[in-house]
Amino acid sequence: MKTISITIISLLISCTIFSQKRAIKITHHILQKEIIIKENKRIKIKTTGGDKISGRFKIENNSIIIKGTQIEISDIETIKRNPLLLSILITGLFTYGGALMLGFGALIGALVNPSAFLLAIPATGMIYIGAKSPNFNRKFKRDKNWRVEIITPSI
């Protein structure tokens, strides 16, 4: 029993020591800033061909694979993070906030003051923004001197 547990622990330790996850390093050589996005994180990419692709990415042979689409590093025009929790919170906030505003506007407009129907205008805008799922994270553009490369970060 003792040898089995020692073998399992040593296998787990060796896997974590020798496995190296790759990442995307985004650098701005004038400002001396660098951002590292580890593999399997959610990102949004716009290619030089105009395609917009978002999802979790994997790195293979100096290219990125998102939803089965292989994108070369040289073809990336813009890149930005797209965290799932933030997307869910912002979408829910705008959608449910707009629905509440629309409901209260209709209720107050019917029972108290007809000018409350005007709340339907910003409410529909909020519902539309919630359905569009905005991303407020910073976009890194190749035109603005941001360079994208693949690295293997040290532990």
Automatic annotation (TrEMBL):
Q: Which PROSITE patterns match?
A: PROKAR_LIPOPROTEIN
- Which sequence ranges are marked TM in the entry? 84-108, 114-131
Identify the keywords attached in UniProt to this record, alphabetized.
Membrane, Transmembrane, Transmembrane helix
Q: What is this protein called?
A: Uncharacterized protein
The protein's organism comes out as Aquimarina hainanensis
